[in-house]
Design a protein that fits this description.
Aminopeptidase, 33% strand, 175 residues, alpha+beta, single chain
Amino acid sequence: MLRPYRSTDAAAVLALYEPFVRDSGVTFETDVPSLEDFSKRLAHIAGRFPFWVWEEDGTVLGYAYGTTHRERIAYQWAVETSVYVGRPGNGIGKQLYQKVLSELRNRGFVWAYGVITLPNVPSLALHEACGFEPFARYDSAGQKLGTWYDVQWVRCSLNPAAPGMAEPQYDVSVE
């Protein structure tokens, strides 16, 4: 079941995220955050951007959200997106991403950017299926667990950019 993130999801989301931090180059975060720090991070994101989880039988199987791309105000129409799924290939990631992208579009954002550590065929396929296109690749962008990883940037057009467009809408109504 697709539903909005709730503050009570923080521990389940951290449990899903932890193996990506500990055992892979999927994220360049190297230390698993404490639940307290992670909860604050997620609350900050969910207080401003779309944040959705997929839950089945009380278990969070995936999540996706948009977040700040860059801090300078001129970048406010662009967001960076993330999606994490415990078991790829079951369609959960696509449904999560479609919901997040639809909401970002409705809120007036122009671009959604994704950053994919390579190699990651499932993530590249998911992003392509959701309308992202590659536009930049950083070779040897980061080292984690003794391995150098390349990073592929992808982007999805949400709305046409226009002079004088209204600022995108941020949602601050989160439990």
